């Protein structure tokens, strides 16, 4: 898939931007703070309905503006052209498709974007929430019903947590219906996650091994969030007293996690910051490859500040792989990354939120 046109209004310093993008490599160059990353952020919003920048929700809107919007013409593998829109006023997102209102779930089901950026090492070094997001985004693009099931799970979890915070005694019958609901939904979620990770495993091995051969064989590990040898409903019942003391539910699908271990770096603490970045990049590329296998079409790839995040050899390896794949790639930098010289690309100069196409 690729974006033919992109229009951005009132997103950070991008007050009014309209771009015609190339189907392959697109490069945005300019000084730091010029607005390059905000272009990638706009594209990412169409696929995730959130920014990849942490704590960015309140900072997305341009100063003095009441509403931001992103409009795109998305061309899919069947050559179908789809017009997508995403707007935000206050705290509420509004999605549109072909000029008609639609749900966020339907919007993000159509547009797939993966991104490698300066904060990507958090996928490896950060908390489990980031890894669950990565995993569940992949599951969603295989099984669109996943999102609704996850929402139902969250509603049941909220009800049980409300009972805990209210100090409801552990032997109260009020817990049982919510625990039964949680257990059934968690089993389904867990099965979907396991199936996805099994499909991802080979791609992870190939992508990460190429980037970090010195670390030896990578091993994917998964924890579902509760003990493997016991039904979740029974565990929740047994843990009521403990959960009551801490005021929230300590086990379940919302506590799942996964990790990559290496033969010569069995703990993530053994990785340097550079190795964390390369591992995260390998995960992103593996997810993009699996998406292409399943859909016959690569997702859109965003690479933010590539030259400062990777050495030249790794830049060249990644760019060569993506150029060969035929994926649409959006790259930012203060100058043209060296590995892109000699490759066909479209370049834009970015200055104070304005985009100028360059030959």
From TrEMBL:
Domain RecF/RecN/SMC N-terminal, first and last residues per copy: 3-333
Record keywords: ATP-binding, Cytoplasm, DNA damage, DNA repair, DNA replication, DNA-binding, Nucleotide-binding, SOS response
Superkingdom per UniProt: Bacteria
Keyword Metal-binding: no
InterPro entries recorded: DNA-binding_RecF, DNA-binding_RecF_CS, P-loop_NTPase, RecF/RecN/SMC_N, RecF_2
Localization per Swiss-Prot or TrEMBL: Cytoplasm
Pfam family, one: SMC_N
Keyword Cell division among UniProt keywords: no
Coiled-coil ranges from the UniProt annotation: none
Residues involved in ATP binding: 30-37
Record's function text: The RecF protein is involved in DNA metabolism; it is required for DNA replication and normal SOS inducibility. RecF binds preferentially to single-stranded, linear DNA. It also seems to bind ATP.
Family statement drawn from the similarity comment of this UniProt entry: Belongs to the RecF family.
Name of protein: DNA replication and repair protein RecF
Organism, scientific name: Rhodanobacter geophilus
């Amino acid at each position: 898939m690729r974006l033919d046109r992109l229009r951005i209004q009132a997103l950070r310093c991008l007050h009014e931007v309209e771009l015609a993008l190339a189907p392959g490599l697109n490069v945005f160059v300019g000084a730091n703070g010029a607005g390059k990353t905000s272009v990638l952020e706009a594209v990412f919003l169409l696929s995730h309905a959130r920014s990849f920048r942490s704590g960015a929700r309140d900072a997305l809107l341009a100063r003095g503006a009441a509403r931001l919007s992103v409009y795109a013409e998305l061309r899919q593998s069947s050559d179908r052209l789809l017009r997508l829109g995403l707007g935000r006023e206050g705290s509420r997102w509004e999605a549109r498709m072909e000029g008609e209102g639609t749900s966020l779930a339907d919007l993000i089901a159509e547009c797939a974007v993966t991104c490698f950026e300066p904060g990507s090492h958090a996928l490896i070094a950060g908390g489990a929430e980031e890894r669950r997001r990565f995993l569940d985004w992949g599951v969603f693009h295989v099984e669109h019903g996943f999102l609704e099931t996850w929402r139902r799970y969250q509603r049941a979890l909220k009800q049980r947590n409300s009972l805990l915070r209210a100090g409801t005694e552990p032997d109260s019958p009020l817990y049982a219906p919510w625990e039964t609901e949680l257990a059934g939904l968690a089993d389904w979620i867990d099965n979907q996650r396991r199936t996805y990770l099994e499909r991802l495993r080979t791609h992870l091995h190939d992508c990460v091994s190429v980037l970090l051969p010195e670390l030896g064989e990578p091993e994917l590990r998964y924890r579902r969030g509760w003990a493997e040898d016991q039904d979740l409903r029974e565990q929740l019942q047994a843990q009521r007293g403990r959960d009551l003391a801490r005021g929230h539910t300590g086990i379940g699908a919302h506590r799942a996690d996964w990790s990559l271990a290496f033969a010569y770096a069995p703990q993530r603490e053994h990785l340097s910051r550079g190795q964390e970045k390369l591992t995260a990049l390998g995960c992103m590329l593996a997810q993009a490859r699996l998406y292409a296998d399943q859909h016959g079409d690569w997702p859109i790839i965003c690479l933010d500040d590539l030259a400062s995040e990777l050495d030249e050899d790794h830049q060249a390896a990644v760019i060569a792989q993506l150029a060969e794949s035929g994926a649409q790639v959006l790259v930012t930098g203060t100058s043209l990354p060296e590995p892109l010289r000699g490759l066909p690309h479209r370049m834009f100069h970015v200055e104070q939120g304005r985009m100028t196409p360059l030959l």
